[in-house]
Specification:
With 462 residues, this protein is α/β, with parallel strands linked by helices. Helix content is 46%, strand content 11%. The chain is built from 15 helices and twelve strands. The protein has a six-stranded mixed β-sheet with strand order 3-12-11-9-10-8. It has a four-stranded mixed β-sheet with strand order 5-4-7-6, covered by helices on one side. α9 links the parallel β9 and β10. α3 runs antiparallel to α4, α4 runs parallel beside α7 and α9 crosses α15. It is elongated and about 85 Å long. The relative contact order is 0.13.
């Protein structure tokens, strides 16, 4: 390989890796990136603890190293000081290749999800390292690769030791632009009453002169099961989300002092991890103190228009949600058992096993009849409306008294602390400095369930 060919391969590899890193940094700044939407492998990897070192996304030091490689090539060719550019080039390639091996192993063995942009950058740098290994004589390498490997080890150790905060607390006014009521569908019109004697005309009120008058909150219809529980009004998101917990699947007692909501997908790995923490938190407080309503938001394109990038990881998510809602509709008392069973382990059971479990709980014919019940499909649309109104994006989300907890909580103890703050009326304190994840977009005013599909607004999130 000629020197020109060598420089060309190395420069091209580094520029490909740099471009992929810039795309990931743009995504972290809130830009929509193709293939990196809610539920995608890119979303799962970049939103995990391995997607950053402390508060710094790993794409940033990666981009700096990749940008330094063509600069080192130019210095090696043009600098009057021999060797410095060459040593910097070899050090950066060794650093980038070692980091590539580390992150590919994390994706393969730990997360079991792959980010296309991350992997593109890693493969590009492994190509550069292979080019150096097969072209450059060993005696010309000297100690530069050892320095690069040492820097990689330092970065890996820092990433392991420094656990980043992976959740964000968004105040209610940043989540919902207007108040929303979750209400049952309108009752059928009653037969006309006999005509009443004419009443004297009521005085006409003067038109309002103040801007303080507020329009009534829009309603999100909810199809409740056949045997509703006693009404239990709940206000979340700073009073902007008002609902009757009796209309929704509930884990815990309807009489609990504090009720919050969990927006969950059975195929979402982070949701499953958070569920275990929620269960520990419920046990810590006791059933008389805390309960949680459940909104099912499958991250599958088949039923969720806000998932723009289909991901096999979420195959069957819509069917799992329908099955759970069928259990809730036919036998609300058995929902909790089915819901907890669905969230056991690292991955959801096979769909056939889930149907078999539902049949064991409420009977096969009951399950089949409930799945044909139009209320189940309506409930799924209603739940996805809440997902849309709270900004769509990745899961999990906890809708609490003063705002929304969005992302991964580090431990059950931390979740208990956050819930206790909410019970006391104090919002969870945001971490100082820049937020570790982009804020969920606010719902537009008037953006409520349309009664047609999920909504008629442009899809948000990708």
């Amino acid at each position: 390989m000629t020197p020109v060919e060598f420089d060309s391969v190395i420069a091209a590899s580094s520029l490909i890796a740099l471009l992929a890193s810039v795309v990931l940094l743009a995504r972290g700044a809130g830009r929509k990136v193709p293939g990196c939407g809610a539920g995608s492998g890119c979303d799962a990897v970049t939103s995990s603890r391995w997607g950053r070192i402390g508060r710094v996304p790993v794409a940033l030091p990666g981009a700096i190293a990749y940008a330094g490689i063509p600069i080192a090539i130019a210095v090696a060719e043009l600098s009057p000081v021999p060797g410095w550019g060459w040593l910097a080039l070899l050090m950066l390639i060794a650093l980038s290749a070692a980091a590539a091996v580390w992150f590919i192993a994390i994706q393969l063995l730990v997360l079991r999800r792959f980010c296309a942009y991350c992997t593109t950058a890693h493969v590009a740098m492994l190509v550069a390292a292979a080019t150096v290994a097969t072209t450059v004589p060993l005696q010309a390498v000297r100690y530069a690769p050892i320095l690069g490997l040492g820097l990689a080890v330092v970065l890996i150790v820092l990433q392991v030791l420094i656990r980043p905060r992976l959740y964000e607390f968004a105040p209610g006014e940043e989540v919902l632009a207007e108040a929303v009521d979750i209400a049952p569908p309108a009752a059928p019109a009653a037969p006309p009453a006999p005509p009443a004697p004419p009443a004297p005309p009521a005085p006409v009120a003067p038109p309002p002169t103040s801007d303080a008058a507020q329009p009534p909150a829009p309603l999100v219809p909810v199809s409740a099961p056949a045997a509703p529980r006693a009404s239990r009004p709940v206000m979340l998101l700073g009073g902007r989300l008002r609902m009757d917990a009796a209309l929704l699947p509930l884990v815990g007692l309807i009489e609990a002092k504090y009720i919050f909501a969990d927006v969950v997908d059975y195929t979402c790995d982070q949701c499953r991890q958070l569920h275990a923490m929620v269960e520990q938190a419920l046990a810590s407080f006791g059933e008389k103190d805390v309960a949680v309503t459940v909104f099912l938001a499958p991250l599958e394109r088949a039923c969720n228009d806000h998932v723009l990038t289909p991901d096999p990881h979420h195959n069957g998510a819509c069917d799992y949600a329908r099955l759970a809602l069928a259990v809730w509709t036919a036998a609300p008392a058995r929902f909790v058992e089915f819901h907890r069973w669905m969230l056991q382990g690292e991955r959801p059971p096979a769909l056939a096993d889930a149907k078999r479990r539902a049949a064991e709980l409420i009977g096969r014919q009951t399950v089949e009849a409930a799945l044909r019940d139009p209320r189940v499909e309506q409930q799924l649309k209603d739940h996805l409306t809440i997902y849309r109104l709270t900004g769509a994006g990745h899961l999990p989300k906890l809708l609490m008294t003063t705002g929304m907890l969005w992302g991964q909580v580090s431990s059950a103890q931390k979740l208990v602390e956050l819930i206790r703050q909410e019970m006391n009326g104090s919002p969870a304190a945001p971490a100082p400095g820049p937020a570790p994840a982009p804020k969920p977009p606010s719902a537009a005013a008037g953006s409520v369930f349309s009664g047609r599909r999920i909504d008629d607004s442009p899809s948000s999130g990708g």
